[in-house]
Structure formats: C-alpha cells, structure tokens
Amino acid sequence: MVKTKEVRIVRIQKVPWQWPQRRKGQINISILDDPQKQLSLYEGFFDQVVEQADDVVSRSFGSCLKGCDSTREHLLNVDLIAIAYSDKILGFVSAKIFKPHNLLYIHGVVVDPSVKGKGVCRFLIDSLIKKEGVDWLSFTTQNPVMFKVLNSFCGEEVYPSPNSSAPSSLEGLAKNIIQGREGTFDAQTFVVSNLYQECLYDSIPSVTDQDLHQWFNDSLCIDELRKSNHGFLFFGKIYH
C-alpha cells in the first residue's frame, strides 16, 4: 500500500498538465470530469496521454489488448477518469456514474506492473468514490485480485461471493449495466459467458485464498493455461 504522504492528490481543473520530475515514491493522481470535453481540447496532449496509457495496457495485459482506439474509448466514453502519473502515466481508472442507484461502475482499470502491489489501483478507485460520494461499486472482471480490491471497500457486502449469491434486487441493475456488452448474463451466478473475445490476460492472476481461487476457476471455467473468455459482474456496498 502506498502511504498517504507518498501520494499527492492533484485535482486538475484544466489540461494539459505539466509532467513533474519524478520523485522517488511520489505518485500524482489527477481526476478529470467529462474527459471527452477536457482532453479533446488538447489534441497533441491527448495523443500523448493515449500513447502512454496504451503502453501501460500492453505491459499489464499483454499485446492482445494493445491498441490506441480501444484505449481512447476507455478514456473518452466515460463520465470521469482518475490518472496516476509521475513523469509518465502509471495507471488509470475510468468510470461511469449510475446516479439513480448512486453507483460507480468501473469501465476500465490498468496499473503499470512497476507499481503493482503499491496500492495505486485502490487509491485511484478511492479518489473517485470520495469525489462522487457513491454507495455502490461495480465492475466486470476475470481477476480474483480485483475481487479482493472490492472486498477492501465493501467488506462482506460483495455480490456474488464464494459464500453468497447476488440478491434478486440487483438483477435489473445488472442487466442494465451489462446491456450492449458481449456474452450471456446468468442471473443466478452473475457470470457473463463469452464476455471477452479472448482472455484479458496471458495468464489470469492467482490468489493465495484457495476458496476464492477455486471459485473463480470453477465459475469461469479457467483452463490449465489459466485462460477464459468468461467474466464476473460484481457489486459491492461501500462502507463509509
């Protein structure tokens, strides 16, 4: 986990920002509302952001997801983004807001391998939660590590989980969120079959929690190469 004193939270009111000289242990987090409007005003700067973000995507997931068009979509077609950077981009979280449900839906999350394990992902998500004051957090994933991130915000109120299914009251919202995505949503398990055209990872990450590890393996039919085309849709009630 990154200590608070090592992270300077910067609210960017307008872009482009200046890339600071990198200081050991310092990571800046900038939040942009309406990123399509803000970033599109500065084409050259935005191209630089997209190129750097795409490099992070490639290093995090492999070349299968590398592609500036996809990265651009994750940065623009959302309500807000949080970007972690020093002298270059180290990660970002893009999100949509479902205001009637007071829910933050994570559209994309990527963290450079060089800073993984330092709490950057959690800081990025936390900055958006605090800004919007939401009560619910949701995303799709193949990665059990992301389940643990959700658990850190929501405790036991994570749905589904190895020990509990999602309540029927979430089914309508789940279908609304997943509308337009690839795959087939199972309202009993909240697994979306064939959500991805190909596995997001060269190898889906493992966790030491054997119950969680096995639940992901069984539910997503993860093969011996630790690959799958399926994914979970998760919800968590944030404790404040």
Automatic annotation (TrEMBL):
One Pfam family it belongs to: Acetyltransf_1
Example of a GO MF term: acyltransferase activity, transferring groups other than amino-acyl groups
Domain N-acetyltransferase: 80-130
Protein name per UniProt: N-acetyltransferase domain-containing protein
Organism field: Candidatus Campbellbacteria bacterium RIFOXYC2_FULL_35_25
Lineage: Bacteria, Candidatus Campbelliibacteriota
